[in-house]
């Protein structure tokens, strides 16, 4: 008998249909992946199962948990259900825990509330649950506070919280999206193990097809509030039935046109022995400040027209290095030159015009109170605004596939993908030689990401651009760069041609990164390509 | 529609209209004494009655509104005009000596009870409306500096500020062009609240005789003068008191309502 059954579940908020006749079922111990792009209704489905829909939502259809209809249950009964029978894990481990409570108390609290367990006993169970998620006794005492843990460890505490009452169903909503690849691999394997060994059903919600490929027994694909396809994982990846599924799969393994061979001659960007350190707080009063070498003796070059990748996990010094290359922060020692000019916060404006940047977050990259025209024209500050600046803005917008008529609009009128195109237009406006792409496609849905990558490849050819492509996403870096640097703890541990580096990594850290990155098995995609050709 | 916002706007507008009308016309001359008609209760000739010199209370409240609003407005202007640039500069130089110097200077002003210092200033330089304005204005500076700095700090971490820096823009220019328009909401709301506090402070100073001097009418002094006669003629104290309460309440409601209306995160919650 299935543990959870959704039958023709529809949710409407105001005039908008959020979910349309969603049907889904989970057996005990089964792992089902729920994938789709942002806004497809994945998270709403989870909230509907938990009875956490926003007020004013109209629900029709049924949600049955162990045969019991729960859509009509009163709030009090739902409260008993949450935690007891259904546990949930959220994306952001930084905000899911109470920063003022110890991890032991947080896990114990659930037990004390739901099972009226005395505190001592609850703490003993909390110890057991934390051990179960890999936060074992001597290293992780119960009286630790969340800020004393890393992101991955906090996500483990959140999992311990969710499984404290041994729920039959665990819902994980993008549980690893905020984590580094190696941490992601550990958390995913923990979830997999929990589902298998405790007979707990797991509904894994994610936008990342590679994650479900390695985890799920079955996959449901959502689009615009509907489940467009459900099937066993391997079958779905090998022979997608719905057009949308096929599109998603194609986009997630998309390779834009190959980057050109870099031009010979003097390098465009030279970084030599760059070092930057931060002062840490004194461990004791009057003790000297310890130093963190965020960027430690880094040297590399980038030729005109080249695509260079820079990968590494959070805290490896990528961002510090990027800021130094953009001339925003000074270096402690070493030097950076761009087309022969030294790069520093004091560099002259005309030299600065040679490098521009595209950031990750399409929502935070623009002043919400200015029109597109003014946003795109901002870098003209460096060169002086030419007389034909409006034409230049129109040209840049056309280059990135938008209409020149978009000039007068405000940024909130655009989607995430369009905003990222506007960010690229802004970077192009001074006709730079180098564009730094700082996680520029990481926040985009796979299909939009594929389009933006194609756009970047096209612009590189037409505008003779060099890219420094900074990302934690190895598959994207592999697809778009010709050469790649791997950074760990402030140092470049390995560099070389991308394909060689990915197929035969020399450094242990590179090998570990590659092994941890979730992948869709190559055999699954080959068959699809074969059928697509027929 | 938000009832609190509407009520607040209406009360504030009432005070403003009364002050504006008093510039060109009041029912009676506020400086003319008519001892024969003293302490009259509200009547058709004198809607709110007369005081112990026979002056028309309605006229005095209208003229007093002018004093209160002018003092509070200029004081808020001083606070904003000096405090906001200081706050923006502190945020732009976060963690450096300029930030420290500005914020510690603010702490210094904050450390003194504002009314005590206002009394000190007026005691040294003599009581007058101008000195009241300066005293109240100085205490508005750290409030605006803090609000501006806090709002600006969260914006400085955003990518569009980084993009502007990559575009070679100087800190000052970024502060004016990108930061200021985006913290305007905060400043408008704080301005409204400080405005109401300014009115209270002016009334307080006038009450102890350190604000506007006779014959300039002032709500605070009207209260002080009515105090001894409150049993004989309660209306003489009642109406200026009500005027202060209504104006301060109105401005507070307006400030709260504006905060909700201008904050996009709260927008749409009240459908």
TrEMBL record, chain B:
The keyword Membrane is annotated on this UniProt entry: yes
Subcellular location(s) per record: Cell membrane
Occurrences of domain ABC transmembrane type-1 (ranges): 65-255
Main localization (coarse): membrane
Keyword Thylakoid in record: no
Membrane-spanning ranges: 69-88, 108-126, 132-158, 179-201, 232-255
UniProt topology in membrane: Multi-pass membrane protein
Pfam families in the record: BPD_transp_1
Entry-linked InterPro entries: BP-dependent_transpt_permease, MetI-like
UniProt xrefs under PROSITE patterns: ABC_TM1
Keywords: Membrane, Transmembrane, Transmembrane helix, Transport
Family statement drawn from the similarity comment of this UniProt entry: Belongs to the binding-protein-dependent transport system permease family.
Protein name: ABC transporter permease
Native source organism of the sequence: Sedimentimonas flavescens
Lineage of origin: Bacteria, Pseudomonadati, Pseudomonadota, Alphaproteobacteria, Rhodobacterales
């Amino acid at each position: 008998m299935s543990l959870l059954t959704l039958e023709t579940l529809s949710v409407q908020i105001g005039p908008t249909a959020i979910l349309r006749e969603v049907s889904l079922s989970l057996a005990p111990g089964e792992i089902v992946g729920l994938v789709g792009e942002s806004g497809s209704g994945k998270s709403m489905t989870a909230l509907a199962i938990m009875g956490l829909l926003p007020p004013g939502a109209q629900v029709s259809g049924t949600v049955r948990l162990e045969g019991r209809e729960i859509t009509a249950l009163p709030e009090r009964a739902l409260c008993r259900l949450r935690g007891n029978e259904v546990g949930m894990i959220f994306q952001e481990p930084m905000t899911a825990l109470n920063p003022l409570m110890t991890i032991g108390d947080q896990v114990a609290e659930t037990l004390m509330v739901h099972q009226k367990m005395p505190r001592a006993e609850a703490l003993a169970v909390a110890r057991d649950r934390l051990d179960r998620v890999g936060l074992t006794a001597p290293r992780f005492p119960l009286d630790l506070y969340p800020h004393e843990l890393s992101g991955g460890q906090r996500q483990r505490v959140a999992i311990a919280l969710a499984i404290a009452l041994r729920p039959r169903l665990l819902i994980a909503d993008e549980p690893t999206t905020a984590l580094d690849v190696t941490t992601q691999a550990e958390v995913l394997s923990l979830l997999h193990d929990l589902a298998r060994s405790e007979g707990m059903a797991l509904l894994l919600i994610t936008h990342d097809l590679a994650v479900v490929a390695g985890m799920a027994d079955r996959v449901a694909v959502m689009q615009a509030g509907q489940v467009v396809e459900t099937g066993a994982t391997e079958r779905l990846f090998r022979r997608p039935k719905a057009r949308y599924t096929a599109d998603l799969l194609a986009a997630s393994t998309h390779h834009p046109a190959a980057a050109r061979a870099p031009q010979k001659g003097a390098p465009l960007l030279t970084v030599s022995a760059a070092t930057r350190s931060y002062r840490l707080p004194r461990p004791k009063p009057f003790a000297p400040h310890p130093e963190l070498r965020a960027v430690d003796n880094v040297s590399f070059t980038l030729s005109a027209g080249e695509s260079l990748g820079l990968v590494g996990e959070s805290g490896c010094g990528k961002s510090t290095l990027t800021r130094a290359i953009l001339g925003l922060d000074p270096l402690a020692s070493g030097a950076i030159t761009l087309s022969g000019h030294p790069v520093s916060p004091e560099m002259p404006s005309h030299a600065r015009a040679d490098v521009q940047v595209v950031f990750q977050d399409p929502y935070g990259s623009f002043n919400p109170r200015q029109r597109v025209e003014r946003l795109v024209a901002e870098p003209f500050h460096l060169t002086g605004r030419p007389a034909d600046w409006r034409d230049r803005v129109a040209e840049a917008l056309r280059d990135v596939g938008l209409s020149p008529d978009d000039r007068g609009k405000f940024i909130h009128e655009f989607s995430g993908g369009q905003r990222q195109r506007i960010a690229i237009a802004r970077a192009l406006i001074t006709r730079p030689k180098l564009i730094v792409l700082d996680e520029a496609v990481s926040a985009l849905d796979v299909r939009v990401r594929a389009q933006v990558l194609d756009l970047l490849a096209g612009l590189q050819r037409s505008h003779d651009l060099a890219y420094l492509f900074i990302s934690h996403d190895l598959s994207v870096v592999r697809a778009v760069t010709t050469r790649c640097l791997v950074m760990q703890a402030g140092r470049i541990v390995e560099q070389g041609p991308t394909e060689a580096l990915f197929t035969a990594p020399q450094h242990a850290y590179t090998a570990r990164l590659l092994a941890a990155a979730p992948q869709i098995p190559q055999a699954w995609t080959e068959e699809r390509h074969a059928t697509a050709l027929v | 529609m938000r009832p609190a916002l509407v009520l607040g706007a209406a009360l504030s507008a009432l005070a403003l209209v009364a002050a504006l009308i008093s510039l060109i016309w009041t029912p009676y001359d506020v400086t003319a004494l008519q001892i024969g008609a003293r302490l009259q209760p509200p009547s058709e000739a004198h809607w709110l009655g007369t005081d112990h010199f026979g002056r028309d209370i309605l006229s005095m409240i209208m003229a007093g509104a002018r004093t209160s609003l002018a003092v509070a407005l200029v004081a808020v202007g001083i606070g904003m005009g000096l405090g906001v640039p200081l706050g923006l500069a502190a945020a732009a130089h976060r963690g450096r000596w300029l930030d420290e110097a500005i914020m510690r200077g603010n702490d210094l002003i904050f450390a003194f009870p504002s009314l005590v210092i206002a009394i000190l200033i007026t005691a040294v330089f003599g009581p007058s409306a101008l000195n009241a304005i300066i005293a109240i204005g100085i205490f508005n500076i750290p409030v605006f500096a803090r609000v501006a700095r806090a709002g600006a700090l969260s914006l400085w971490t955003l990518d569009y500020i980084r993009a502007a820096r990559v575009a070679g823009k100087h800190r000052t220019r970024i502060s004016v062009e990108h930061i200021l328009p985006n913290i305007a909401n905060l400043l408008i709301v704080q301005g409204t609240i400080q405005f109401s506090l300014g009115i209270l402070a002016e009334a307080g100073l006038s009450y102890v005789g350190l604000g506007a001097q006779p014959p300039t009418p002032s709500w605070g002094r009207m209260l002080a003068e009515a105090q001894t006669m409150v049993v004989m003629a309660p209306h003489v104290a009642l109406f200026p008191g009500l005027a202060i309460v209504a104006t301060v309440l109105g401005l507070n409601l307006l400030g709260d309502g504006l905060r909700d209306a201008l904050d996009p995160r709260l927008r749409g919650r009240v459908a």
